């Protein structure tokens, strides 16, 4: 009788087992797959800021800004004052420069009068100087106020006295004592005037004239 070569012993030794069940296969598993992931490192929050230090820093910052602003304003004020003074000086220089020819002609007239020259020639020279003065005032933007024959205006006239006048009605400027001037719309000096109070009253008839009639 023939012997069966496929005995259970032989089958057990030659049949390959399950790879997942063998110790060798389990031992060969990657450590990264079997080892649990490391725990995340904990980060501690930053310590809270000191509120006193925060307020102090903010105060110092605002103080510095305020000091800078005050310094800038003080420099601006000084610069503005200096510019204003320079503008005033330049304005005065311009006016005096325009008036110098008038003064020169007046000095010539006074020198000419000392030589005993004709009074008529001196008067004509003075009139020319006055004309030059009026022209200079006009170039500077000023003008002489009209007074005689104008209704009395307290805004531009200063009444010194009242006079009787046959030529001017009551309330009309009869005499100009000191001329007035204005620069543009601004009054430089009011005119000093005498205001008419009308024609003189007629003298009452005397008793002698009544008896004669």
What does this structure look like?
Helix content is about 50%, strand content about 15%. By secondary structure, the chain is of the alpha+beta class. The strands form two sheets. Strands 1-4-5 form a three-stranded antiparallel sheet. A three-stranded mixed sheet has the order 2-6-3, with no helix packed on it. α4 packs antiparallel against α5. The termini are far apart. The N terminus is likely disordered.
**Domain module tally:** 2
H-E string: HHHHHEEEEEEH
Strand content: 5-15%
What is the mean pLDDT?
A: 79
CATH-defined architecture of the largest domain: Alpha-Beta Complex
Features of this protein?
about 210 residues, alpha+beta, Hemagglutinin Ectodomain, Chain B, Nucleotide Exchange Factor Grpe, Chain A, domain 2, 2 domains, three-stranded antiparallel beta sheet, three-stranded mixed beta sheet, 6 helices, about 50% helix, disordered N terminus
Brief overview:
This protein is an alpha+beta fold and 213 residues long.
